Fold this protein.
Amino acid sequence: QVQLVESGGGLVQAGGSLRLSCAASRLTFGTYDMGWYRQAPGKERELVASITSRGSTNYADSVKGRFTISRDIAKNTVYLQMNSLKPEDTAAYYCAARKQYTSSFNYWGQGTQVTVSS
């Protein structure tokens, strides 16, 4: 079974930065698309950023220009660099994986909390 383990969350002031990491195991990492989702209290889970097995990226409008998703094939790890953080970025952030050329993310990590204070 695919395992995804997130790290790097925490408390940061508005305008600050954090880098989330997601270590993946029990999969052929280079054949999976990876994504970062977030869910704030009382809100639906939303896709923040994704990166395909070929390296193409996609971002939610709310984070474009501030967040960067990347992957290190050698380390089986995907990252989310978050800059210029805002209080509205506060949420639980989840790493997700899907086999390349499929439509739905179906493997999930346990989540890491990001809290941005104003």
User: Anything to note?
Assistant: Residues 39 and 74 are 29 Å apart (CA to CA). The two ends are 40 Å apart (CA to CA). The chain has a mean pLDDT of 97.
